[in-house]
Amino acid sequence: MKPNKQDVVYYLVLLCVPLFFCVASGLYLSKLSVDHHAKDFGQFYLQILGRKADVLSAQVGVALSQPEKCEEIDSRMAMWRYIDDYATVKDGDILCQSNPLIDWGSSKFSAKTLEPGLHHYLKKSSDSTADIVLMIVTEKTSSGQGFAVLTEQAFHEYLDLVPSSRYSKLTIWIGDTAIVGRRHADQVIANSVESGDHNISIGALASDTYVNTTMAMFVLSSIPVALMISLMAHFLICYFAPRLSLADDIKRGLDRKEFYLQYQPIYGNDNKLHGFEALARWQHPKMGNVSPEIFIPEIENQQLSMLFTRYVFERVVQDIGPLNLTKPYHLGVNVPPSFMCSDELDTTLKSTLEAFQRVNLLLTLEVTERQLLDEEAIRHIYAVRQLGIRVAIDDFGVGHTSLSMLQRVHFDYLKIDKCFVDTVGVDSINAPVLESIIELAHRLNVNIVAEGVEKIEQSSFLSARGCQFQQGYLHDRPLSIETISSRFVFG
User: Fold this and answer.
1) Which helix (H) or strand (E) holds 309?
2) Are β-strands 85-90 and 93-97 bridged in parallel, bridged antiparallel, or unpaired?
3) What mean pLDDT is predicted for residues 1-21?
4) Count of H helices and E strands in the chain?
5) 301 vs 247: CA distance, rounded Å
6) CA gap 53, 132 in Å, rounded
7) What is the 3-state secondary structure (H, E, C) of 59-128?
């Protein structure tokens, strides 16, 4: 069967909307994951840098611990290949220096405000260019204060940073000056972390390979989630949508003639066919066969009983048209009490009786007991019985019919609901009720029809207690009008 346009749109929306949001969420989460791991990576490197800065400061502090002993400082500094220049200063006077060309006294190195630790400095060369160098400042003592200079290259060698395949861009700041990875400092500053003990900050940016791998992992993981959401949404729609739009579906179903009738035979105690009951069935185009337990209560709740009853009578007249009965049978049609008071009662019954008489059928109105019979309905019951129409109380025992109503209105049949028939042979609280109903019907001189007879034990029990008629799967299932034509009505 070729899918219609609405179905295609429905399934596309059902698949694409969750997929879009799940993929978008996956991309967003992948970015959060990459940024989070970048900061973790920076924090890890920051701890390494902090430890190396502590070691370097301690080494310089030891080497310059005696600011006035220049020869000892020279011999110590020769051991540290990372140190490019050094000087010791006291009260603005140079005590020792490795490079006499540098004016240490006039430089900011000897400023009293310079705190111990790592600092950056622009060292001017003879060609008027300036190189960024690092300054390690020792604690100021009564003997003086020491300064040691590292070139940027020497600092890189000392750090001995291990390259990472995940993070191709790494920037290290001393203060506000980038020492490592100056070219991409603006790109990684958002993910930078700062040391609380040192004047160092570090930021990292994930490599394109790592970003693409992480995005692919999150996106691929989001696809099964999107499919699960689509599947759950489909199940929820299938479960709730029929209930939300059932009344509209019923109206459309009546217009499209999706409802049809089956006829369940009713047999007497002599196992001879007595008649049939017309039972409505619904073949929904999407939901398939819908149970009467679902659509009948909805019809009653949504005030569609009159519309549906009119449809049933029209369908009954249509179905029985080709029949050729050799003997009269009863055909029961369920009607709500409101039908007995409607303006359509006379015209509907008149056209129906004409069709029934042509095929030798006797009409029985089975008034459903789920709604209360009022005084007007009772008057109309008397009137229709004068037309030769039989009247039955359907599903007796589960609705509103009272004992006083049975005494006031003469019914031709009392149909016992299946829930009481099921108590036969079962230790149930409803078991005594069945016998009481049968006894009551006998006293009122009303014929009994037992519904839902499915076991031989039930049939024997009912026959023994004078139940005149039975219907149920034990005798026959509901049949199509074609089956009835071939089995019962041609002689």
Assistant:
1) helix 305-320
2) antiparallel
3) 78
4) 15, 18
5) 9
6) 17
7) HHHHHCCCCCCHHHHHHHHCCCCCCCEEEEEECCEEEEECCCCCCCCCCHHHCCCCCCEEEEEEEECCCC
Amino acid in position 258? E
Domains annotated on the chain, with CATH: 6-209 (no CATH), 246-489 (3.20.20.450)
**pLDDT tens digits along 465-480:** 999 999 999 999 999 9
Residue 362 — very low, low, confident or very high, per pLDDT cuts 50/70/90? very high
The CA distance from 410 to 381, in Å, is 9
Give the rounded distance of the alpha carbon of 333 from its chain centre.
Answer: 43
Instruction: Tokens for 325, please give them.
Output: 């009965």
What SS3 class is residue 483? Answer: helix
Place of tokens 């080494």: 59
Label the pairing between strands 390-396 and 413-416: parallel
Using the predicted structure, report yes or no on whether residue 342 has a pLDDT greater than 80: yes
Considering the chain, what percentage of its residues have pLDDT values greater than 70? 83
Strands across the sheet with 200-206, in order?
177-180, 167-174, 200-206, 193-194
Burial class (CB in 10 A: 0-12, 13-18, 19+), 354: exposed
pLDDT tens-place string over residues 383-430: 888 888 999 988 776 665 556 667 777 889 999 989 889 988 887 676
Element (H or E) spanning 203, and its range? strand 200-206
pLDDT digits (tens, 9 = 90+) for 236-288: 877 776 556 788 889 999 999 999 999 999 999 888 999 999 999 999 888 88
Q: Is the pLDDT of residue 131 over 60?
A: no
Buried (b) or exposed (e) across 81-119, using 16+ Cβ within 10 A? ebbbbbbbbbeeebbbbbeeebebeebebbeeebeebbb
Average pLDDT over residues 220-247: 81
Q: What is the dihedral of CA 430, 434, 439, 444, to 10 degrees?
A: 100
184 Cα distance to chain centroid = 44
The structure's pTM equals 0.54
What sections of 137-286 are H helices per DSSP?
Answer: 152-159, 185-188, 208-244, 246-255
